Amino acid sequence: MQYLVLVGVFFYFITSSDSGSYVDNLISANGHANPPPIQKIYWCWTEGLTAIALINAGGAGSISALRSLSIVSGLPYTFAICFLCTSIYRCVKMESGELDIVNASTWTTSVFDFTSLFDEETHLNKIARVKSLLLGAAMPFVGLNTALMNLHNKRVYAFVGSVCLSALWYIWFLLILTGYSGNAGDGQKASEYFQWLNVANLGWVFYVFYATMVTCVRIPKSASRRTSTAPPSRTSSPRSACRTW
User: Fold this and answer.
1) Which of 3, 42, 173, 230 has the fewest C-beta atoms under 10 angstroms from its C-beta?
2) Backbone angles phi, psi at 100, to 5 degrees
């Protein structure tokens, strides 16, 4: 009976790890149906080595630490579920054919498209999408300047706005790089450890502010694009339809 239980637990952990690696693989590939197999192998090894490290480092108390880690990780997953609910709502609207989302513009390149080797179907080829991703990460003021110029048609306003928003991006990168690099030093006191950690946390504050401001730019731009590309209503006269187009 003991051997039967051991075999059952053995296969349970294998199948659970395989399912978890498969889900992590799909999520990291941005929902790609056939992600690269090497990526799944990476997640299998990462999960297995993490479990082995926890057990070897903690000994008998490692199981309770793992249990606490599962509870703590459930909090950010709650926010992930909120985003999933929004995604399901958008998917239902697309399936029902609602015009406000069917005519909406989509992102040409996603941050995590490299995990699927840029295999999604877009109007740009892979090289152009890689260039777009690198340009957005290294010089975000280029795209921001274009978006603000299209919205307000004021060259000075677009230039100043794009430079200020890009400054938030660069400050975020420098603060987290400085904070986490200083935090990794050996022989630090607790006060020094938390000082470096606060530098990194301040960087994330700048990032949240940057993401909020970029969202404020993105929403009216998407709304203006939907308005300009929306077809005329059926009840409109031919003259008003011509004005709409």
Assistant:
1) 3
2) -65, -25
